[in-house]
Design a protein that fits this description.
Largest sheet: 7 strands, mixed
Shape: globular
Distance between the termini: 57 Å
Keywords: Cytoplasm, NAD, Oxidoreductase
InterPro entries: Ald_DH/histidinol_DH (IPR016161), Ald_DH_C (IPR016163), Ald_DH_CS_CYS (IPR016160), Ald_DH_CS_GLU (IPR029510), Ald_DH_N (IPR016162), Aldehyde_DH_dom (IPR015590)
Helix content: 25-40%
Family: Belongs to the aldehyde dehydrogenase family.
Bound molecules: nicotinamide-adenine-dinucleotide, N,N,N-trimethyl-4-oxobutan-1-aminium
Structural class: alpha/beta
GO molecular function, one term: aldehyde dehydrogenase (NAD+) activity
Number of strands: 20
Strand content: 15-25%
Number of helices: 16
Radius of gyration: 24 Å
Strand order of the largest sheet: 14-15-16-13-12-17-18
Subcellular location: Cytoplasm, Cytosol
């Protein structure tokens, strides 16, 4: 097993906001960090909490993408020949390393993404759990034996696809790289991963960890870049599958590109999910659920329940309590333990969210709290991309803030009267990623879950996502699933072997 020390992690150990500068190359293939070729196209990447330059992003071009894919292919030839137990052993070692270095990885994630350290630690925990889970599944992968007449038989083999591409979004940079690579590797595939150009730092740390754990050089590679690099990956003839997380418009392009090469795709796209709160709910839990559904990661979560439908009779109590709790959210230095909301990913994203809030006001919504740029008292945070979390009342279904994904800390509250009415309104969207219902009526809870058109329905909670449960969208929110046993289907293919035990029939 390779035992190379990690180059980067010690730097993150004592990092505080406003101090980190990442200088090491951020590409990784052939088992090592690789310097970018053409630095003339370099773009700054900012630390969200301070607006300071954290590192430079140099996109990979055609030759670099090709080198990464070829490196993946040669590793795939070795890795796919290992037994599930052998793969599992190495993956468990990777999970162990991540668990051991959880805090350093979480700090690096915070510096690049801006979310609070408490949340980032949870993300890293979900990450090693995901690797453990798929390591557990790897040795169980097997086919079927099918008896045929005359002693003949057939059997099926579950085989890997080959080189898989992962393209990630910026809201869960480390976790998304693992949601894709862990099931891919368990099935015997290799991966070339492209993180979002806004969060290039932690995917390459993952590559180093996999190497340290003992995967063959080239099994997990990182290429940096934006749309152009992503397109090179999607078009490459040696790529068997693209697993994409991002927006609906980009997802459509990825699907089109993959279709040209008849490559498999998984698409994890955006959402505008409904959260339905009935008057018979346990109100305190419903309020906590609404906060979980809207304000994790500064509201930049694909499955957030941003359309909060509240039964009219309890609307005043709900609003009073939810506003009180929202105002109490500690916004500020994301590396501070008591912070519960950090900075949005970029200045343009912050401005986009403010634009949605202004438009909501113009269209008749009432801001009950927040919705403004927040400047923490610490001078080093004065240029950070902070917003005060916002609750909007007087919302209508036809407003832009209710129809479009905002991807910021903005909760739209909508009153409703009956179950039938709210189901019709909740489903009146092209998205279908998630949904939620709070009620004490068990029959109603399951009826509503059955009738909501979404890939996930949370009953009496929101936004919990243990690795054991599948995650993915209906309608325009995506195709395929991540997590759970079912994801094996999306990273493997079935071969049928038919065995004749007698003579071939004399037909001609
Ligand atoms: N369903 C999920 O699991 C999930 C999880 C996280 C985020 N999201 C969604 O992601 C969106 C926010 O993320 P984003 O702003 O990074 O999305 P995005 O679509 O702009 O970018 C996603 C990724 O695609 C790459 N990309 C951009 N153009 C490309 C092209 N033409 N070809 C190939 N790759 C290309 C980007 O560089 C990035 O790595 C939101 O809509 C959110 O809901 C979904
Ligand atoms: C872990 N969560 C909260 C379910 C988010 C999954 C990734 C989506 O943006």
């Amino acid at each position: 097993m390779a035992q190379q020390p990690l180059l980067s992690l010690p730097e993150f150990q004592n990092v505080s906001t406003g101090t980190l500068v990442v200088k090491e190359p951020l590409n990784f293939w052939g088992g090592a960090r690789v310097k970018p070729k053409d630095t003339t196209k370099s773009e700054p990447v900012y630390e969200p909490a301070t607006g300071r330059v954290l590192c430079d992003l140099v996109p990979c071009g055609e030759e670099e993408v090709d080198a990464a894919i070829k490196s993946a292919h040669s590793a795939y030839l070795k890795w796919s020949k290992l037994s599930g137990m052998e793969r599992a052993r190495i993956m468990l070692e990777a999970a162990r390393i991540i668990r051991e270095r959880r805090d350093e990885i979480a700090r690096a994630e915070v510096a690049n993404n801006g979310k609070s350290i408490t949340e980032a630690q949870v993300d890293i925990d979900i990450s090693w759990q995901t690797i453990e889970y798929y390591a557990g599944i790897a040795p169980t992968l097997s086919g079927q034996h099918i008896q045929l007449p005359g002693g003949s038989f057939a059997y099926t083999r579950r085989e890997p696809l080959g080189v898989c591409v992962g393209i990630g979004a910026w809201n869960y940079p480390f976790q998304l790289a693992i949601w894709k690579s862990a099931p891919a590797m368990a099935c015997g595939n290799a991966m070339v991963y492209k993180p979002s150009p806004m969060t290039p730092v932690t995917a390459v740390i993952l590559a180093e960890i996999y190497k340290e754990a003992g995967v063959p050089d080239g099994l997990f590679n990182v290429v940096q870049g934006g749309a152009e690099t992503g397109e090179l990956l999607c078009h490459h003839p040696m790529v068997a599958k693209v697993s994409f997380t991002g927006s609906v418009p980009t997802g459509k392009k990825v699907m089109e590109m993959a279709a040209k090469g008849v490559k498999q795709v998984t698409l994890e796209l955006g959402g505008k999910s409904p959260l339905i709160i009935f008057k018979d709910c346990e109100l305190e839990n419903a309020i906590k659920g609404a906060l979980m559904a809207n304000f994790l990661t500064q509201g930049q979560v694909c499955c957030n329940g941003t359309r909060v439908f509240v039964q009219r009779e309890i609307l005043p109590q709900f609003l009073e309590a939810v506003v009180k709790r929202t105002k109490a959210i500690t916004v500020g230095d994301p590396l501070c333990e008591k912070t519960r909301m950090g900075a949005l990913i970029t200045k343009p994203q912050m401005e986009k969210v403010l634009g949605f809030i202004n438009q909501a006001k113009e269209q008749g919504a009432k801001v009950l709290c927040g919705g403004e740029r927040f400047v923490p008292s610490d001078p080093k945070l004065k240029d950070g991309y902070f917003l005060s979390p916002c609750v909007l009342d007087n919302c209508r279904d036809d407003m832009t803030c209710v129809k479009e994904e905002i991807f910021g800390p903005v909760m739209s509250v909508l009153p409703f009267d009956t179950e039938e009415e709210v189901l019709q309104r909740a489903n009146n969207t092209t998205f279908g990623l998630a949904s939620g219902v709070f009620t004490r009526d068990i029959a109603r809870a399951h009826r509503v879950a059955e009738n909501l058109q979404a890939g996930t329905c949370y009953i009496n909670n929101y936004n919990i996502s243990p690795v054991e449960v599948p995650f993915g969208g209906y309608k325009m929110s995506g195709i395929g699933r991540e997590n759970g046993q079912v994801t094996i289907e999306y990273y493997s293919q079935l071969k049928t072997v038919v065995v004749e035990m007698g003579d071939v029939e004399d037909y001609f």
